[in-house]
Amino acid sequence: MKFQFLDTVISSVDILQNSVLRLNTGNISQKKSRERLIEEHKKLDYFGDKNKYLVHTARSQPNLSLNLQHRISIANLQIDHKSTENFLLCRVITKFINISALLALVEDPDGNVERLALYNWTNIPKNKVEQMACRSIDQTFLPVGTKLVIKNLSYKVAADKNTIINSNNPDDVIIIDHHNDKLFSDLIWTSDLLVKKEIKGKTVDEFRCRGNDYFASKNYTAAIDEYSNGIKLKPQNGTLFANRAEAYLRLFQFRNALNDAEVVLKYEPSHLKAAYRKGKALCGLKRYKEAIITLQHLHQSLKVSTDGSISSIKQSTEQLLKHAKILDSENKNGQYDYISIINEYCERAKIRKDSKGNDEWVHEVGPRLDHADFLCKDIEICSIKGKGRGLIAKCDIPENTLLVVSKAFSIVYSHEVLGYAMKSHIQNDQTTCVASSLCTGELITQITQKLLEEPYHCQEVYELYNGLNLNKINKNLVNVDIIGNIVKYNSFALDNVIVESVNLSGKGLWILPSYFNHSCIDGNVTRFFLGDLMFMRSLRPILKGIDCQCRLCKLDKSEAPKTVHRRTQLLDTVEKLIKPLSNDPDSSLIKRLEKTIFELHDLRKEHPELEFDTLAPSKILALAYRENGNQSKALSILKEMEEARKWFDIVLKRLVEPILGKCMDDEDKWKKEALYLAEKIIPALNSTVKQLYNDNDNMENA
């Protein structure tokens, strides 16, 4: 399956390769050693495609003629620069692995090592004759020691933030053998291809020290590898398991961390750090009561201990135990300290420039907050005929009820993919569109990586609607096609979330809110975001069951199948027209879009106030007319949208109530918290309202 992100098409296999590379390579800025690169490459073999394909035949050129002055070393390659005149001389030092590209490590005569990706070398056979010629990519394909000349190469930063050499044309790769090696007869290769450092040559303590060094440099993936190699030599070494558990915690791999901590406690029940890390892992897994019991036992042990060196872990345990109790209360009772959460959010949302001039979070993970999910006891997830699984009311629910608080399963902020945060006063539709598309692609990749790291997450993710109508899904297998469609139908966009004039827009996947099957126009439920937390409250009484009686739902159910089908066709047409219009306001496209919007309006001419699907396209149509110089037409379209703007008259009220609930004038505490929240978040409100109400002024001044 292929996914379209603006002008870029990426296949599910490419997304899988990106996720696998991230999973197995540490994202660090310093240059990696030859040994570390080889270690990372070996781990890719587990994910390699072992199927047989038609493989391009690597060739040698007996009469090869090259200008040796154009030979470039790996050390001199430049990022995003395609070498058309220069060529790279290298030799293969690992076997090739087939994922999306054919991946291997190569070195140049100076001993510089880099990853190499060969694209377009394999094809699916079309007939029996081609099937007979198929082969798999194994150690016999361009085997270790093969010398290559690579022309027209490009040097990129891959999805795992590490560099890689790309070659897209098999004809640009030439084997250097006895037919043409005289060209390089004077070259001396500085490294010995046959020298290998075996694991058996190192001690457990050496692996521990190397792991600690990687951990100190925040390369947790490499640290885990070193600890794991030590564990192979001594499977009952508690220190290695405890250290690896902490490295897993830093990567938010809570199930793996828990497993390692429990192994330590099995052999060393009094291991304090292992008990602490077990409690932390249980919190991450949302098993709060077990975490509290574990930490209470640890706290008791620390209280009776006379060892003065444990004061730091004692303090950390007290803090974590207190936090675990807060999480348990949030999860069980829906009791949230909103003032504390708002302060935490605003502090963690701060952005600074890194050494390369890109925007990065001041806090390591940004506004990804550590708080518990909550599901109101009066609603439940169950199967709904014709609609899949969804949330329904078990009884009548009064207005102003906190229904759901959900932490994002995965979230991507715009500046994390753009490299810069969009300022609230300079954002535009094109930039927003690019950011949204990039966030979607990144979100699919991140979720794929998370499921590869800990496959048990597949169970909860695959329960969401995917639109593929599959009879059966293997819930233990990572399937990018399913993940991509789940993101398509269930992801939520963060729009116009402004903190200190910085737009923290993005996209995320929230599990519980995804079970709300639709949004009701009469305001059944409202939602609000604080960082990666989504709060959802009822805005009016919700009756028991699943039959919504809002005006929009009644209209949806009353429309004839022919009307529904035509409406779907028109909305598809709108989507196809909007993409090219974003880049080129062609007059013929403008007319087609206007005609399509008119027909959509006509389908609901009896209820024009419920035609909300045309609001966004109408704004794009107005902007297109403005770009074409037709200001009067643009203004007339915006005036037609005036009815929609009335919803923003109550935006101040909507700002506070999704979090704190209904405004109670006689409650001083509520008023104090509401004013504090508004003071923190109101710039976003002001920015949004001004933008919406000043559209006409902008048109007139353009």
TrEMBL record:
Keywords: TPR repeat. Residues 377-555 form the SET domain. InterPro entries: Gramillin-biosynth_MTr, SET_dom, TPR_rpt. SMART domains: TPR (SM00028). TPR repeats lie at residues 204-237. Pfam families: SET (PF00856), TPR_11 (PF13414). This is SET domain-containing protein.
